[in-house]
Write a structure and sequence with these properties.
This protein has 140 residues and is α+β, with helices and mostly antiparallel strands. The chain contains 4 helices and 5 strands, in the order αβββαββαα. The longest helix has 19 residues.
């Protein structure tokens, strides 16, 4: 083993991987029903929780994207085509691909997505409706 190899080995031992899956990071979902969909990390759990014993995060994303609109369409059709359908999901880190983009600014999803309301399906539907209203106002 030469001196250079020993030096490089010491450098590699001291390196620690940085945390890059933080709230606000835009990710692409790789597996499951929402595979290929883009989302934003709202909250991350690096150590896991009692229910999910693996690293995961709460992701809010777009399930149905807005469609193309032309001049000839009437207002009712335009409203229907510009509607966005969001999703809220706890997703394992292994099923996410982070992008280089991050959300900064006026969007604060921690207030919009309260974790207490994600337990029951009825409350989850309410949160989803409020999210679609927020995304609709930001798109137009």
């Amino acid at each position: 083993m030469c001196i250079r190899d020993r030096y490089m080995g010491n450098l590699l031992k001291n390196k620690v991987m940085g945390k890059f899956l933080k709230p606000g990071r835009i990710v692409v979902v790789l597996n499951g029903r929402f595979a290929g969909r883009k989302g934003i990390i709202v909250k991350n759990y690096d150590e896991g929780t009692k229910e999910r014993r693996f690293g995961h995060c709460l992701v809010v994303g777009i399930n149905r994207y807005p469609r193309k609109v032309t001049k000839r369409m009437n207002q009712k059709k335009i409203d229907k085509r510009t509607r966005v359908k969001p999703f809220i999901r706890y997703i394992n880190y292994n099923h996410l691909m982070p992008t280089r983009y991050q959300v900064t600014g006026d969007l604060d999803f921690k207030n919009i997505v309260p974790e207490e309301k994600l337990g029951k399906p009825e409350e989850r539907a309410e949160v989803r409706k409020s999210l679609s209203a927020v995304s609709y106002t930001h798109l137009t």
